[in-house]
Amino acid sequence: MYLLCTIGASLICFLLLKWMKRRRLCMDIKRLDGKTVLITGGNSGVGKETAVALAMRGARVIIGCRDPERAEKAVQEIKMRSHNLNVLHMHLDLSNLRSIRDFCHKFLEKEQRLDILVNNAGMPSVLDWTDDSFSMCFGVNHLGHFLLTNLLLGLLKESTPSRVITLTCSVYKFQKLDFQDLNYNLFPFFTYCRSKLANIYFTQELARMMEGKGVTAYSVHPGYVQSNWTCHYSILFRMLMQVVMFMFFVPCEVGAQTVIHCAVADEVTQHSGGYFSDCRHIALQSISKDPGVAKKLWEASERLVGLA
To answer: Pfam families per the record (predicted)?
Structure first.
């Protein structure tokens, strides 16, 4: 009797976990032949799975990565899995504004078009600083992608219809932006939440500015994904999180589905500036729906990265 109860409880737990991890898949089969895609952090995790999926559809895929060795290894894997040889990497360090400018200069020299920009790379909640003295989360997750997108915006407009997809997270709702201290780095998790809220406001303001110009923008929560973000922490924490991720998080290829959906589906264009999760447009909480805050953040970001 005890054995039967144990087996029954285990089965129920297993089914419950499967139900909690269920996700929609992108069912759109659109091809991307002749299109150019740039994915930051495309050497691992959701970024790499997105690169594979878009390369399989015929796109020219460029991944931006700061580690040439890891990038080249990822490129070979993406080519093999997608059967597309038109995949390459370029050096990009989002924690260094000079590196971003150098990358964009080289990209604009080499590339004739940019149809889809996926701002995928990100830093977890770590207490660290960028080369330009910004908190690592805010500097990489928001400011780095803000500068990158702005420097490539001219090519995006020339390549219309084009799309900008920025990965965010549902933890955006736990913090507000403090314009007296955007570089807040006292509690790393709070800094991470603010950077993800900034991603959403950035997407909204970009969509407003590009309205009628052929460039649409989307923020995407890929879900909680079994990626390598724990590499920034101690061995003990990594071991603990491996168990948690196995039980509750989804594989990277599943996490990439909403990014792919926003890259190819025609239906998303009516929601430019919107927030997507599980291949659906999701209503945002009130904390992230103030157009005045979005405009103020854009102007503050311009000053911080030297665009103003």
So the answer is: adh_short
Residue 247 belongs to a domain with what CATH number? 3.40.50.720
The model's pLDDT over 99-117, given as tens digits with 9 standing for 90+, comes to: 999 999 999 999 999 999 9
Is residue 178 exposed (0-12), middle (13-18) or buried (19+ Cβ within 10 Å)?
A: exposed
- With 0-12 / 13-18 / 19 or more C-beta atoms within 10 angstroms meaning exposed / middle / buried, residue 219 is buried
Is the model's pLDDT at 277 over the cut of 90?
yes
Domains contained in the chain, number: 1
User: Is 17 part of a structural domain of the chain?
Assistant: no
Q: Report if residue 7 sits inside a domain.
A: no
Whether residue 19 lies inside any domain: the answer is: no
Active site (annotated) includes residue 192: yes
pTM attached to this predicted model: 0.88
Task: Evaluate whether residue 3 is within a structural domain.
Answer: no
- Position 7, amino acid: I
- Strand pairing partners for 135? 129
Containing structural domain, residue 200:
24-305
**Distances in whole angstroms, Cα of residue 54 to Cα of each of 58, 81, 82, 204, 278:** 7, 11, 8, 24, 18
- Residue tagged active-site, from 184, 192, 218, 275: 192
Mean pLDDT of 112-132: 90
The per-residue pLDDT for 184 is 77
| Burial (Cβ within 10 Å: 0-12, 13-18, ≥19) of residue 138 | buried
Give residue 218's identity as a one-letter amino acid code.
Y
